[in-house]
Amino acid sequence: MPSGDNNPEKKNPLVQIARYSQLAFIFPAATVVGWLLGAALDKWLHTGWLYLAGLILGSIAGFVELIRLAVSSDSKFAVGLACGCAIAYVNFFWLKRVVTALADRATETSQPQSSKGVVLRFLLRYVLMAVAAYVIFSVSPASLYGLFAGLFLPVVAIACEAAYEAYAALARGI
To answer: Strands, E, within 43-117: which ranges?
Structure first.
């Protein structure tokens, strides 16, 4: 019986990328499915709160599946995923601050900030991601895949939010 380490599918980088990229879609997909099921039950049963229950249950199911897959994977991958999520959060926070500073500077509504400081913070985001990717890649390629999965989680969440907003706008007739 062949051992798991000799399995050619485990060594193929495309198979590993496909396996790890599913992590970026599990949580938002489970949340959307829970919301859709709750909304369908709301229409069928003529209630107005089941969509919220479906949203919560879908989020919980997605989170449980995400944790289950991360734990069943290599521990280096789980560390990479955690680092990717943390970097994505810091990146988003810094981007929000830079955009706010640019808007304040353009509208002159608050104390003007240094242009060099705004640009430096904007560029520092990319330096942070590059350094983290280099450090993680030097440890293990599996943890690099985890880093990418963590970095792309906000992207998938934003895409789901955009789809919901488009649906809500169409439902209101806008």
So the answer is: none
Query: What is the pTM assigned to this prediction?
Result: 0.52
Q: Which residues of 89-105 are buried (b: 16+ CB within 10 A; e: fewer)?
A: eebeeeeeebeebeeeb
Q: How far apart are CA 92 and CA 77, in angstroms?
A: 22
CA 128 to chain centre: 17
pLDDT digits (tens, 9 = 90+) for 9-63: 556 666 766 766 676 677 778 888 988 998 899 899 988 888 888 888 888 888 7
List all residues 6 or more positions away from 79 whose beta carbon is below 8 Å from its beta carbon. Answer: 143, 146
Q: How far apart are CA 106 and CA 112, in angstroms?
A: 9
Query: Are 51 and 38 within 8 A, CB to CB?
Result: yes
Q: Could you state, in order of their start, the residue ranges of all structural domains in the chain?
A: 4-172
Written as one letter, the residue type at 89 is Y
- What's at 32, amino acid-wise? V
